[in-house]
Amino acid sequence: MDAKPRQDATAGKMLWHFTMLLDGFVAGPDHAMDWMTGLPPRPSLIDAYVRTTGAVLGGRDGWNA
After folding, report:
1. Contact present, 27 and 33 (Cβ < 8 Å)
2. Within 13 Å of residue 7, how many CA atoms lie on the same side as its CB?
3. Are 26 and 20 in contact (CB under 8 A)?
4. Which of 15, 40, 55, 60 makes a 20 to 30 Å CA pair with 48?
């Protein structure tokens, strides 16, 4: 079996997102992330994100929250 890459294969787009407070901290006391809330939800933005995202890489603390 030959393992040559396909000539018509294309790489997907990768975006990096990182959120931080102005004081340089990523999370509050006890790893709280509630400082990111307070904005009204935008269902159309959420739908587009879910529809166009192939994978999400997240950390354990965020997953356990």
Report:
1. yes
2. 0
3. yes
4. 60
Name the residue with tokens 């959420």: 46
C-alpha closest to that of 15 among 54, 62, 46: 54
Q: Is 30 left (phi over 0), alpha (psi -120 to 50) or beta?
A: left
Torsion of CA 57, 58, 63, 65, to 10 degrees: -150
Give the whole-angstrom CA distance, residue 14 versus residue 54.
10
Quote the tokens at residue 4: 């040559």
pLDDT, averaged per 10 consecutive residues of the chain (65 residues), comes to 69 75 78 74 85 82 70
Do 31 and 61 touch, CB atoms closer than 8 A?
yes
